[in-house]
Amino acid sequence: MAGHVIVVMSPPGEANPGDQGRMVHAMTLARDLRAAGQSVAVYFHGVGARWLAAMADRNDPFTRHYGALFDQIRDIAAGCEFCVTNRFGATEGAKRLGVELVGGLEEHHSVAARLVEGDQLHTF
Q: Would you say the pTM of this structure is higher than 0.90?
């Protein structure tokens, strides 16, 4: 059965209300597709890896409001290890959340194999 791949590449932060909206829509889509019985994976790539640090900080106003929504999809989320570790300093947040890191430290994670299998790509 083909599924859905959701890639979050937008940055967190109060100065980015449009990007916060993209994150909310990504999480909502993941939750709703999953509830409909679909196979879903959510990947945090590029600067989107910073969301893992942001979601781990439950004192952040955005996270206080949307943390529960993130918790509903946390087990189907993963971060690009290269981006999380080498580029955007979100390793501690990913660990605290229990989010898997994928792709390794040498190169960026790719969703190509999932797309070849027929999964649909959604980017935010």
A: yes
